[in-house]
């Protein structure tokens, strides 16, 4: 069953290739949606997939790319947007 998560990642997550790495991981997992930087320094993700795919993405988000220092990952479930791919929004 398709689920939709709104995810906020806090810590040192901008300027460390977090968005591109998230896109790569999402595509590897077959997750659709988008990732973008927020003005406050957080990264925001909307992701859709099955429960296992989204759990794997959340697990990855808690670590992130090599130079990221993730302090917190928050998420909640929302209504599906029927995304067709995973993109980086600017």
From TrEMBL:
Catalytic activity: an acyl phosphate + H2O = a carboxylate + phosphate + H(+)
Keywords of this entry: Hydrolase
Active-site residue numbers: 19, 37
InterPro entries: Acylphosphatase, Acylphosphatase-like_dom, Acylphosphatase-like_dom_sf, Acylphosphatase_CS
Hydrolase found in the keyword field: yes
Residue ranges of the TM segments: none
Residues annotated as domain Acylphosphatase-like: 4-90
EC assignment: 3.6.1.7
EC primary class: hydrolase
Homology family: Belongs to the acylphosphatase family.
PANTHER family xrefs: ACYLPHOSPHATASE
Name used for this protein in its record: acylphosphatase
Gene source species: Aquimarina gracilis
Source organism phylogeny: Bacteria, Pseudomonadati, Bacteroidota, Flavobacteriia, Flavobacteriales
